[in-house]
Amino acid sequence: MRIAALLLIVMLFSGIHRIHAQRHQTKIDIRLSPWHTNGALVQLPDDYATANKKYPLILFLHGKSKSGTDLSRLALEGIPYWLDKGAKLDAVNPVDGKLYKFIVVCPQALEWGLKPEQLSSVLDQIIAKYRVDTTRIYITGYSAGGWASVMAITESLKLSKRFAAAIPMSPSAIDDKNLYHFRNTAIAGVHCWYFGGSDELFFLENAQRYADSTNKYQEGLARVTITPFRHCCWKELYDPNFRQEGMSIYEWLLQFKRE
Fold first, then answer.
1. pLDDT for residue 39 is more than 90
2. Three-state SS at 10
3. 192 closest CA partner among 175, 172, 212
4. Is residue 249 part of a domain?
5. Would the pTM count as exceeding 0.85?
């Protein structure tokens, strides 16, 4: 009897957590391939229903431990964590001085992270469903999501050209073939801001290598920030109040758009 009661409490708590994790975000289904569909969390700007305009898109990609089918886990780290807390990512573009509001999409991979062809499909579906400013599509993620971000901006010139800027954090090692594709990133002019922790040398070395491989083709296109962290702390780095050289990552993204 006591075991049954305990199981009921656990089930109730899990249900509450799932609702809580989607409190400020909407769940949608995303087709990842002809055979697989999975969930994603979406947040639209607060004036989306009343303003007839297009919005910048942030595509946020989670780490390996958040893969699967439980969307509530996405809210444990990164951008979904802050959206779940009611934070706003609205930011002023340092270039034109205007306030921008983002469409934020956080797709969940069934395992590891989303592959380039899956991300291309996700983009197609999101652009068809929402009013996206396709000159301002930004991609970011941590760990396996950092891997997915770098894979996307190197896989092909066609896919690279869909992004205006990328922020890969603590990226896992990308596929060997993509190590030779940073020319795509440079030709497409995708501005990149890499993050890596001083106590996670493997991931920091990845970040530095990928930035150097980009700058080899176009100097200054990629930069690296070394944080005093191990492989962690993405809540802090995605915090809208976090500043590096006086600028949030969201303000930094808005400087860049595709022509």
1. yes
2. helix
3. 212
4. yes
5. yes
